[in-house]
# Entry
Amino acid sequence: MSSARSLARERAMQALYQWQMTGQDPADIEQQFIADQDMANVDKKYFRELLHGVPKRIEEFDLLSLELLSRPIEQVDPVERAILRIGLYELQQRLDIPYRVVINEAVELAKSYGGEQSHKFVNGTLDKAAKNLRALETQAARRPR
# Structure
């Protein structure tokens, strides 16, 4: 993960983790990250979109997660929760990003920051979400050519 967009996802995951744990205003977290983190190669516009977009849709994503998870979202590890919320945002709001890219980027974040089996959990959860949120795209990808 080294592209500017991948780095934006990584920083957004860290910032959303902070938001989940502290309840700080996303604008304050954004300013803190710009001041304290290496943001030189980060797609700052995309970082900002994720950091502000996920909290705006948090209730919607958490309701959606009820269909995807066997436990309440609050019981999911905070790192995995931040990754899942970014993935759900991208699946729902960024139709320009192929669903497989969304899932792969989330899996890579889980491998880097989550627990030992996080990537499997994230992969399975977002794959289920993609079948609902991107039904036509996932069906087309699964058809034999």
About this structure: Residues 79 and 113 are 7 Å apart (CA to CA). Helices lie at 4-22, 26-36, 44-56, 58-68, 78-93, 99-113, 118-133, 135-142. Residues 4-142 form a domain with the N-utilizing Substance Protein B Homolog; Chain A fold (CATH 1.10.940.10). The two ends are 30 Å apart (CA to CA).
